């Protein structure tokens, strides 16, 4: 009997020890307020952009704009129209126009009584390729000049300077030409001429370097 009571007491002690060793249940988290649940999903707040990052972005944009502006300015300086002094320098344009008019009147006029005057004018107003062109254009006049007593007169009526680039320029010329034979039974003729001349600045004056008659 004592043994049985002893075993019962022992089981009770073991049960009490086990009861003390079982951990207490964790407290439940409070249920969220129903009004908060109805307000929708929570939004994550975003802070302001850090100042160092913002300054770096602004610096990149400023550099990109500076590069673009520099290339744009270079492109504008390369536009041929902006280098054309005929559009910006009225004094130089007038100088070219006057020189071309004087040169054309002189080199394309001929008098059988003084053929040397045309040669002298060619030496003063022509250079380069224009020398041979002028000689070819007046070859027939010279050949028939003495026999038919020819007098060729050229007068520039209008001219326009198309371009001036440094010491080179190009002008469009309109002129009236009269060709008269003073020989017995001679005749006279009149014609209008249009051509372009390329001129270069040499020895303090503008000289015709090329004559363009627009012929193929």
Structure explained in plain terms:
This protein is α+β, with helices and mostly antiparallel strands and 216 residues long. The protein has a domain at 83-212: Nuclear Transport Factor 2, Chain: A (Roll). Helix content is 48%, strand content 25%. It contains eight helices and five strands, in the order H-H-H-H-H-E-H-H-H-E-E-E-E. It has helices at 2-21, 34-38, 51-77, 80-83, 90-107, 115-125, 129-137, 139-148; strands at residues 110-111, 150-165, 168-181, 188-202, 205-212. A five-stranded antiparallel β-sheet has the order 1-2-3-4-5, with helices on both faces. Strand 3 and strand 4 (188-202) form a beta hairpin. The longest helix has 27 residues, at 51-77. The protein is rod-shaped and about 170 Å long. The model is unreliable at 34-40 and 75-79 (pLDDT under 50).
Q: Rg to the nearest angstrom?
A: 51 Å
Q: In percent, how helical is the residue content?
A: 40-55%
Number of strands: 5
CATH-derived topology of the domain at 83-212: Nuclear Transport Factor 2, Chain: A
Low-confidence stretches: 34-40, 75-79
Chain-averaged pLDDT: 78
The geometry reads as rod-shaped
**Strand/helix succession:** HHHHHEHHHEEEE
Classified by CATH, the class of the domain at 83-212 is: Alpha Beta
* Adjacency order of strands in the biggest sheet: 1-2-3-4-5
Structural class: alpha+beta
Measured distance between first and last alpha carbons:
146 Å
Any idea what the CATH architecture of the domain at 83-212 is? Roll
Query: Which band does the percent of strand residues land in?
Result: 25-35%
Largest β-sheet summary: 5 strands, antiparallel
How many helical elements?
Answer: 8
């Amino acid at each position: 009997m004592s043994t049985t009571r002893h075993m019962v007491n022992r089981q009770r002690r073991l049960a009490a020890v086990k009861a003390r060793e079982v951990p207490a249940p964790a407290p439940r988290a409070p249920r969220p307020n129903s009004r908060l649940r109805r307000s929708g999903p929570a939004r994550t707040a975003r802070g302001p952009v850090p100042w160092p990052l913002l300054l770096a972005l602004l610096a990149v944009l400023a550099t990109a704009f500076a590069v673009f502006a520099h290339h744009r300015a270079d492109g504008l300086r390369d536009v041929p129209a902006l280098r054309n002094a005929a559009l910006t320098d009225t004094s130089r344009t007038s100088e070219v126009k006057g020189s071309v008019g004087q040169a054309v009147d002189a080199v394309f006029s001929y008098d059988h009584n003084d053929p040397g005057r045309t040669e002298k004018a060619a030496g003063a107003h022509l250079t380069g390729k224009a020398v041979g062109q002028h000689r070819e254009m007046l070859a027939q006049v010279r050949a028939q000049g003495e026999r038919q007593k020819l007098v060729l007169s050229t007068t520039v009526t209008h001219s326009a300077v198309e371009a001036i680039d440094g010491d080179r320029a190009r002008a469009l010329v309109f002129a009236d030409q009269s060709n008269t034979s003073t020989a017995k039974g001679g005749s006279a003729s009149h014609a209008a001429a249009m051509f372009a001349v390329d001129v270069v600045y040499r020895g303090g004056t503008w000289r015709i370097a090329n004559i363009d008659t627009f012929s193929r």
